[in-house]
Specification:
The chain is mainly alpha-helical and 73 residues long. It is built from two helices and no strands.
Length: 73
């Protein structure tokens, strides 16, 4: 049972999670029409809550390792 999970199910779930958003994406409209100035800089990248979640996870991971190191000493 364990080998089935590791060899078949885990890679399949990983692929579904990795490409699920791409498969459900809508086609683009092609952007603004001719003569219309762009309202947003096309090279700007929005930084949403994902970055803050990654940062919080990194801090929690670091604190956990520091506590484990102190317990060992």
């Amino acid at each position: 049972m364990k080998s089935f999970l590791l060899n078949r199910l885990l890679p399949a779930l990983t692929l579904i999670i990795a490409f699920g958003g791409t498969l459900l994406a809508q086609p683009s409209s092609g952007g603004p029409g001719p003569g219309t100035p762009p309202t947003v800089d096309p090279t700007a990248t929005p930084l949403d809550g994902g970055v803050s979640l990654l940062l919080a996870g990194g801090v929690a991971y670091g604190i956990k390792h520091l506590r484990n190191r102190r317990k060992k000493s």
